[in-house]
Design brief:
heterotrimer, A mainly alpha (about 220), B alpha/beta (about 230), C mainly beta (about 280), B: about 230 residues, alpha/beta, Rossmann fold, seven-stranded parallel β-sheet, 10 helices, about 15% strand, globular, C: about 280 residues, mainly beta, seven-stranded mixed β-sheet, 1 helix, 18 strands, nickel insertion (chain B), UreG (chain B)
């Protein structure tokens, strides 16, 4: 048990490339779906309970000792568009770089060797949590929080949204985050015995559609 | 300590993920990485283009661009046909160019490594920052040396103001000197201020778009490369 | 906020008000290459009609014999196309999920099994979630390595001018032992975040067209934006979607639209633009 490591892992300044990804917020802003703090909160809540839940489940299952390569396949099966698979693997590769520097581990080395172009980011994060001595619940929290803090930070830059309002949005999502992290951790704990069917697979059609729209933009600020 | 030593054997040191490591995984010496930073519109991309033209016949080169609008600089370089497309990579920065070159260099490191894998072996990789303010500098984890580009049109007080870019860059380029008479800039004053801020660190006054304008910059790059290839790994 | 139940009702505790029914279809080729239907077993609300003449492909239409699923019902369909068989399944009308008398949830499980060289087309009409309904649906497809699947799934949240019921749905596609696609959708009262700009953006019809087959193994991995998502006719108000390759020999179209009609338009565009 090493809770301080969670603060390192979940720090927005952890150098794993997240700052260049908006989690679909850049596309949602362009489409007029995010215009202010209230619409940012709705977007974040929707993303959290779909993509965030899936990612948190994968991370928790990895942290619980699930086979990272099998979970990487499970992540592919839960990510039906290439733009999001590519973004997840790019972020996974960047997370791997930072994680191996912070918490050297044979398990991280093995995954890096098996997926040189990057495994899905939640899987890498789950393994990093494991290497740092963190629990599956910690891993679920880190992933779930990042899942909404990324879009919130991006919208501060994209809309010049008041950063206090954006932070208040994240604070209002705390109850959702608590419940979701607990659910994801519970599923993750059952994964080694019960396999991928136990893991959440919640989908968000608009995130999938707009991710591919965004990837086709000739000019953009964020990588995803 | 005994324990540390054992851990070192189990988990070999992981310093190999940044510019700190001068070798590739196979033990050969990796490409020299030079960063180019500076405010918007001072001529970073023009310097990169001119350097590529000056050096591409003698060196194996590649470029990573970081721009707020990611593809623009890369497309400029492609249009100018200074390098084949596969030797240019663009990195998105999420509207924060200085973050991508200093605080979280992971995307740039990935781009640098991908270039070495895809078109290597390379002698030199130029990493161009998106235009930013005077405080933006490159992480030593990303580049081996950095060039800061300012121009005379930005005012002759910039060297006096200093800032990490002006004071610590390995080379300061004061670009567009041809404009000095039109913008009322005192080049000798700029040179004195730069000397005061930078001590022995070199400064080049030039216009990189003019014939031979990039020659002193290219000469400096060749010197860095000579140091790089001869210094012990 | 109403709290959604987080687990589906057990199949064992049959509600007093509920109906339990499983329809079974088995398609098998004979020595002449004609697909026969040795099992065509409608049950409860499912009446099955064989259409057309005997040939390489057997066509079956599901005719809704009564309103279903109602709350408390436990319904299932099992369809198998054995090696080399071709089975084409359609429905005569939309399926409407309705509330039951007790407020219990209904379950509806579709299981499709496709052998080597076989092809199964699963093209039912939309599932409409009436106000007050609560349905847990699963669709599980298992394909042999050279099996082919065409699957269309359409969900409509509420009848005209009506609020939606609650729908939990999971689509799992396993090919040669490996999970190709695993997707859950959850919409309706009490489901957190469902009616947001990240998920539906106000749309009330959601659909997918999934095509799996060995010919997609080497197909060009191209993404196509559909309907209003396409850059040349950017329109966030109408139907929109994306047709994209999965990790494996399959392509999936995902679409959302204000209503069933505009949803079908987008899925038809996807069908016209399948690679190969």
């Amino acid at each position: 048990m090493n809770r301080a490591a969670l603060m390192v892992l979940a720090d927005g300044r952890f150098p794993a490339g997240g700052h260049a990804h908006s989690g679909g917020a850049e596309a949602a802003v362009a489409a007029g779906r995010i215009t202010d703090a209230a619409s940012l909160e709705a977007f974040c809540r929707g993303r959290l309970h779909t993509a965030g839940l899936v990612a948190a489940g994968l991370a928790a299952a990895t942290a619980a000792g699930g086979d990272p390569l099998a979970l990487d396949d499970a992540a592919d099966a839960r990510t039906p568009v290439p733009a999001l698979r590519t973004a997840a693997r790019r972020l996974g590769r960047q997370m791997m770089r930072a994680a191996r520097a912070a918490w050297p581990s044979a398990e991280l080395d093995a995954l890096a060797a098996a997926r040189p172009r990057g495994a899905h980011q939640p899987v890498v994060l789950g393994l990093a949590a494991r290497a740092a001595g963190l629990t599956p619940l910690d891993a679920a929290y880190a992933v779930a929080y990042e899942n909404v803090s990324g879009p919130a930070t991006a919208v501060v830059r994209l809309l010049s949204l008041d950063p206090f309002d954006a932070t208040a949005v994240l604070a209002r999502l705390a109850d959702d985050l608590d419940r979701l992290a607990a659910d994801a951790a519970a599923a993750g704990a059952r994964y080694p015995a019960e396999g991928p069917r136990i893991l959440p697979a919640a989908s968000a059609p608009l995130l999938d559609i707009t991710a591919e729209q965004h990837a086709a933009w000739p000019v953009r600020l964020f990588a995803s | 300590m005994h324990l540390d030593h054992e851990l070192d054997e189990i988990f070999p040191h992981r310093h190999t993920y940044s510019a700190a490591a001068p070798t590739r995984p196979d033990g050969t010496r990796r490409a020299l990485r030079i960063g180019l930073g500076g405010p918007v519109g001072t001529g970073k991309t023009a310097t990169v283009a001119a350097l590529c033209r000056a050096l591409r016949d003698e060196l194996s080169l590649a470029v990573v661009t970081n721009d707020i609008y990611t593809r623009e600089d890369a497309e400029f370089l492609l249009r100018e046909a200074v390098l084949p497309g596969e030797r240019i990579k663009a990195v998105e920065t999420g509207a924060c160019p200085h973050t991508a070159i200093r605080d979280d260099i992971s995307a740039n490191l990935e781009a640098v490594e991908d270039l070495e894998d895809e078109v290597g072996p390379l002698d030199l990789i130029l990493v161009e920052s998106g235009g930013d303010n005077l405080t933006a500098t490159f992480s030593k984890g990303l580049v081996d040396a950095q060039i800061f580009v300012i121009d005379v049109a930005g005012g002759d007080d910039i060297p006096r103001k200093g800032g990490p870019g002006v004071t610590t860059a390995d080379l300061l380029i004061v670009n567009k000197t041809d404009l000095a008479p039109y913008v009322g800039v005192d080049l000798e004053g700029m040179a004195r201020d730069a000397k005061a801020q930078r001590g022995e660190l070199p400064v080049v006054f030039t216009n990189v778009k003019s014939e031979g304008g990039v020659t002193p910059v290219a000469a400096w790059v060749r010197d860095r490369l000579a140091d790089w290839t001869t210094s012990a790994a | 906020m109403i709290t959604a139940p987080t687990t589906r009702p057990s199949g064992d505790t049959l509600s007093a008000a509920g109906l339990r029914a499983t329809a079974r279809i088995l398609a098998r080729t004979d020595a002449q290459g004609v697909t026969r239907l040795p099992v065509l077993d409608g049950s409860g609300p499912f009446a099955l009609r064989r259409l057309g003449f005997p040939g390489p492909q057997a066509r079956v239409c599901m005719v809704g014999a009564m309103s279903a699923p109602l709350g408390g019902d436990r319904l299932a369909i099992e369809a198998t196309a054995e090696a080399g068989a071709q089975l084409h399944l359609t429905a005569a009308a939309a399926t409407v999920a309705l509330p039951g008398r007790t407020g219990d949830a209904a379950t509806y499980d579709v299981r499709l099994t496709i052998g080597d060289g076989a092809r199964l087309d699963w093209l039912p009409e939309p599932l409409i979630c009436a106000e007050g309904s609560d349905l847990w649906m699963t669709t599980t497809v298992e394909l042999a390595p050279t099996a082919r699947l065409v699957l269309r799934e359409e969900q409509v949240l509420g009848r005209t001018d009506e609020r939606t019921g609650r729908l939990h749905s999971r689509l799992t596609v396993i090919r040669d032992g490996r999970t190709l696609l695993d997707q859950e959708t959850a919409y309706g009262p009490g489901v957190p975040g469902w009616d947001t700009s990240a998920v539906l953006g106000g749309h009330r019809a959601i659909g997918q067209l999934l095509v799996v087959g060995p010919e997609y193994e080497d197909a060009e991995q191209r993404v196509r934006l559909l309907g209003g998502a396409a850059p040349e006719r950017l329109d966030t108000g109408g139907g929109q979607g994306v047709l994209a390759p999965l990790t494996g020999p399959a392509v999936l179209a995902t679409a959302v639209a204000p209503d069933a009609l505009r949803l079908r338009t987008v899925l038809d565009e996807a069908a016209r633009n399948l690679p190969g």
